[in-house]
Amino acid sequence: MRSFALAALLLAGCPDRTLSIVTPTQGGAVIKKIPVSADIDILFVIDNSASTSDKQTLFAQNFPKFVQALDAFPTGRPNLHVGVIDSTVDIGTSKFGSSCPSPDPDDDGKFQKPGPGSCAATPDGYFITDVKTADGTRQVNYAGTLEDTFSCVAQIGDTGCGFEAPLEAMKRSLDGSHAENSGFVRDGAYLAVIFLTDEDD
């Protein structure tokens, strides 16, 4: 009898676990109009963990469509800086038994630069430069097309740390941690950051 009374008391004390419908509401919005003639610095943060190899390949194959959209601007292709970083960052995961990050020096928010001979179109520098000059020609730091050059840079492999940290990588790429990244962000240019990842920090 005592056991039955105790069970009844426990049941009576159980909280209500029914689900309630939550209707999200927008608290506010900020609209920023960017002129199509603006200079744009584009940073791609690409997940280089084992789960994203197929996504990287698909992304690189579709980059020509991105360039076509830029070229379709009323004023033509804007003045561009394009940089690529991976998602491997030293955030102290080794204390948890992880072997991350890899010994690759091109981690921690450093712009990716393909090795010599890795593909036909590699930029001369740590990021791609494609800027219109006064006479209407383009000053670029690569041979061939922008599409091929970016597709080369964007193939960063899938051997990076499984403890992805794309947001921290973005921060370190822009906060002056790497001298190689200097000059990427220009005064007066708009900064666009594009993430290709299946996990956040």
Q: How many strands, which pairing sense, and closed or not: the largest β-sheet?
A: 5 strands, mixed
Rg: 24 Å
Mean pLDDT: 84
Number of helices: 4
- Write down the secondary-structure element order: HEHEEEHHE
The portion of residues assigned to helices is 10-25%
Number of DSSP strand runs:
5
User: Which strand order do you get reading across the main beta sheet?
Assistant: 4-3-2-1-5
Structural class call reads: alpha/beta
Poorly predicted spans? none
Strand content: 5-15%
Give the terminus-to-terminus CA distance: 53 Å
The 3D shape can be described as globular
For this structure, the quaternary state is single chain
Question: Quick gist of this model?
Answer:
By secondary structure, the chain is α/β, with parallel strands linked by helices. The protein is built from 4 helices and 5 strands; from the N terminus they run αβαβββααβ.
Descriptive overview:
The chain is α/β, with parallel strands linked by helices and 201 residues long. It is built from four helices and five strands; from the N terminus they run αβαβββααβ. It has helices at residues 2-12, 53-71, 146-154, 166-174, and strands spanning 40-46, 80-86, 128-132, 138-140, 190-196. A five-stranded mixed β-sheet has the order 4-3-2-1-5, sandwiched between helices. A hairpin with a 5-residue loop joins β3 (128-132) and β4. The longest helix is centred in the first third of the chain and has 19 residues, at 53-71.
